[in-house]
Amino acid sequence: MIKKFLFVLLTSLNLLSYSQLPFKTSFIGIDWQPSDSLQFDGREILKRPYFANAWYENDLSVIPHYSENIYLYDFNLKPTVNLLNFEIETVDPELLNVDVSKLDTTFVVKTNIKSAREQYILHLLIPALRYNSINGTVEKLLKFEYELFLEYEENLKEVTTGFANNSVLASGTWYKVRVSNSGIHRITFANLQAIGLNPSIINPRNIRVYGNGGGVLSERNADFRHDDLVENPILVVGEEDGVFNQSDYILLYAEGPLTWKYDQPSGFYKHQNNYYDDYAYLFITADLGAGKRIQTFNQPGIASEIVTDFLDKQLHEEDLVNLSNTGRTWYGELFDVVLSRDFNFNFPGLIASKTARVETDVAGRNFGPANFQLFIDQQLKRTMNIDPTQVTGYDYAKGASAIVDFNPVNDIVNVNLKFNRSINSARGWLNYVSVNAWRNLAFTGPQMIFGNTRNIDQSAVYEYRLANSNNQLSIWDITDPTAVVRIETSLQGSTLTFKADGSLMRNFIAFDNSSYYAVEAVGPVANQNLHSVRDIDYLIITHPDFLDQANRLADFHRQQSGLEVYVTIPDLIYNEFSSGSQDVTAIRDFARMLFSESSPGRKLRYLLLFGDASFDYKDKLTGNTNFVPTYQTLASLNLVSSIATDDYFGYLDLNEGNNDSSLLDIGIGRFPVSTLEQARQMVDKVFRYVARNEETMSPWRNEITFVADDGDSNQHLRDAEALAGLISTDYPAFNLNKIYLDAYKQVATPSGQKAPEVNEAITKRMERGTLIMNYSGHGGEVGWTEERILEIADIIAWRNREKMPVFITATCEFSRYDDPTRLSAGEMVFLNPDGGAIAMFTTARATYASTNLRLNRAIFNNNIFIRENGEFPRFGDVIRRSKLTGDANDRKFVLLGDPALALRFPPNKVLTSHINGAAVGAVPDTLKALDLVTIKGFVADSWDQPINNFNGILYTTVFDKANSVSTFGDQSASTSFIVRNSIIYKGAVEVVDGQFEFSFMMPKDISYRFGQGRISYYATDYEIDAQGFFEDFIVGGFSNNVVNDDNGPAIRLFIGDTTFKSGGFTSENPVLLALLSDESGINTTGAGIGHDIVATLTGATERYAVLNEYYAATINKNSEGVVTFPFFNLNSGRHTLTLKVWDILNNSGSASIEFEVIPRNQVTIDELYNYPNPFMDDTWFVFRHNQANEIIDVEIKIYNTSGHLMKTLNADNLSNSSLSNPIRWDGRTDAGQRIAKGLYIYRLIVTNKDGVQTEKRSKLINYK
């Protein structure tokens, strides 16, 4: 209510009155909880104090903050917040696990105005802990008020930067080359030929070179960067005659991937290697008119200072290994067998009297004391202690660094690093060594870069005196690599002099024209114009390998979703936004252009990264998967703070980009595909998900499943219960399924505790269908929980092709997608071509349980189920909104899936009008055992108005009362929770003109105590659907009705389909099909002891399963129904399955069937025939096999009696039983001719998805 009231307040006040009318809250209480913990690989690695909805500054921060978002309508507001009337409590800092030195002595209120998709948000933060310096105690906040002043100020908004309307690459003929060093490069006749340009036919005066340098782009949106490619001035030697001769060449300065920036406070340079690319790129064209040439400049004026020295810098850095397979930092030399290494840096003319600097960064993985010693010129200068690595910690290795200022002794600076360890297993690595040293300004050729680091002085004119020079030297000012100028010089003896002003810290290059760097050919560049793209709803960025499939998806959304979709590849983005170099910021800048430059109301909404990602940007690893890159943090050693996130591409406001407080402006998803086949399969899954058929539009859309881990004082169960409570209160039409680990028996195995019943329950629910599968608990890259209730073997066996849920996994790094050395379990859930998930709101790094719950709640609460403008939010909207109130932990959550897809649940309603002839809304009716019950109702729209033209099927489930289930208390105290799993009736009836009516008899086996029942509805006509519920009735007691029926149910058993014969063969995952009938109805309540529908399997595998919930009545026939139940992972060999069924009067019946399991890694076929046979026009081939629910490759070769091949038929065959789908032949040869009458031989060849093959032969007769 506070937020809503404040919004009304703000939107109704005159702006000038803000400073006069403060808003004051009522008391806000802080609900302190047990400490929050971070788990990694099943281990607790960090604890921190916590209260409900606490906010933390970063992943390693332990200070909780009260956080609130206050929505504003204007950016030009200056907030002031005062904390009032607060209550505190003293607490032991050791119990909090808090370093008191990090606490403020007051509750400092912080405010920050952000924006998310043009919605301005005041983010309010109040630390909940403070240090009392008077008595040395820690105090925690219990209760407080605050008052808020908002003062209007003009011109607080930053001016946005514009983008070009077109790219220079839009016209002309273009070619690309690359460079790896900064310096003067020469492009020769042969170089031009190598890139596909014919130098003989061009006018050299028209040669143009474009490029923006090779450094990484700034992550902060507001920082300067070149928009599109910038033309660089060049020198073309020999262009005067208008012909590019073989002796002619181009000279230009090009900046490589390594850049240096002068740090004025320290007085030394700092280096910046390009994390993403080892090259910088240049673009060449020769048909756009005269090109820019290097101009000569002569600085006028009298010199105010003579420059005869300069600060030089050198770097040793090799990126050889990423220690934790995460982050942007790679390390070089290993210190293990070799424990001491020397690095020499040559600085000719070094000035020993001036201070030099060595900077180094190292890492060590050591479980005992260890250090690096840094020697400079044989003198020990620093010992860098490496903190011991903890077995239960979150650091793979520990880092250390040193900055040492010294006075060198000669031109060669020797740096020695020595690794000292107490345990032989300890290892160390070098990140880099950099050296800054002063040199006399003397040319040491053939190229020399130098600069002036003196303070900027607009009025100063510096005279540079370069010794050891000659008349062959040239000096170019390279301060701006895209605007190089030649400096006019004078030579006096061997000293070259020139002048330049002091308005900038200038950099120069001197070269004697004796040696140049060479360029490497890349090749022609097709015309492109991303800068012209505007008014796009949905951007898809994909790898060239997946372009066709990305366009398939784009066409679908253009036609079905009404979205404007644009598809491109990273290389095209790099060409226009990062001068050809790979840079993740270029992708973000392109998205930012689409967001900021489009027409009003047409801003970019969604981004799909269609391809897998990798922490290895530069393809150092074999089998790398960097198809569409993700953003990696710089940190690489800490498994908590080093993360991969796609959120970076959605930070589009000018003041965002490089901080944890940025908010998403667009919804982002990823398809982590690494093969063309995976790409095709994922698009196919989207098509299947939105298809309208009997499988996709069925009651599974009413189900939501919650899975919870055990232990941790029942935290995960409580979290799941909190979410289930939210759903049952706010969205009561959904049925809740609860699979809580501690409610199932566990068994001891050599590999630890297991709970196979939970694995089975999850798999059964996946096969039957659930709209959402929500997990709370511990997890990792190989599955869920220490008991492995979900493993990779489970995931790859799922076959829920038409019933794919959305997964929400509040667990650690279940879906890490950026490690090419491992496919995570979460990725497998999404990539399962035969089912799995349609989308995943999931985690890619270690996370906190508390923040997982907050984000999980944010997905459900007024988000994924809420319509806007008549439409349900798409997955991209859901993930974007769920992160509006979050902290740094939220960046670890990722959407694997199509962000433009929406959750497919019923938009319309099913309403009950009458029970047993009485209108609902009066006194609740009571339904007793053996009562005959008649229900009437209608299908309505979301405003409860009848849909009179609805004609379809209504699926109904009538539940008995809810009951309480107690947990076993395996790792925490026993607790209880409520479930509703006793089914009184389950049937289907036709809906005609929007109206329905059905009747059923209440079974004997209800719970006779009185309590609230529930009816769940799902209706569909396979174009639209509806859901509903009704709970305003009582179930209990016993009717006086007398029913005479002593006969048990009739049972017919099959495997897969009704063509199966007892004794036949199946795969290890057969599906029981039982046709049941009974004039009174089938008992499915589970309330009577021994009256369940029970399947008993004996033989090679022994199983026992209760199948009450798998029964469904036949449409309009309550006396008939079907049980469909999948078995999984049966042993090879013969089996007998016996099914026992009871009717509602507790009469029983049973039946048995036999079958043989032949595993799918052996392809078996039988009963091959064609019908009709003999045939005249068409015939169909069918056969039995053991590859049910798998796509098999079928080839049929038809021969005449002389052995000549007449026809080859090929088909991908997928059937849900052991009987294949029919394959048609029209009796014509491969050449299209009709075959003659007679006998023919045909050969069937079947190959499964693993390449296992078998064949069989038969005969056919054509008599036409």
Walkthrough of the structure:
The protein is globular. The protein starts with a helix and ends with a strand. The strands form 22 sheets. Strands 57, 58, 60, 61, 64, 65, 67 and 68 form an eight-stranded mixed sheet that branches. Helix 4 runs parallel beside helix 7. Helix content is 11%, strand content 40%. The longest helix is centred in the middle third of the chain and has 16 residues, at 715-730. It folds into eight domains: 2-152, Immunoglobulin-like (Sandwich); 174-295 and 516-525, no CATH class; 311-440, Sandwich (Jelly Rolls); 530-650, 3-Layer(aba) Sandwich (Rossmann fold); 674-896, 3-Layer(aba) Sandwich (Rossmann fold); 908-964 and 983-1032, Immunoglobulins (Immunoglobulin-like, Sandwich); 1050-1157, Sandwich (Immunoglobulin-like); 1165-1262, Immunoglobulin-like, CATH 2.60.40.4070. With 1264 residues, the protein is mostly beta strands. Mean pLDDT is 91; it is low at 1-20. It is built from 13 helices and 85 strands.
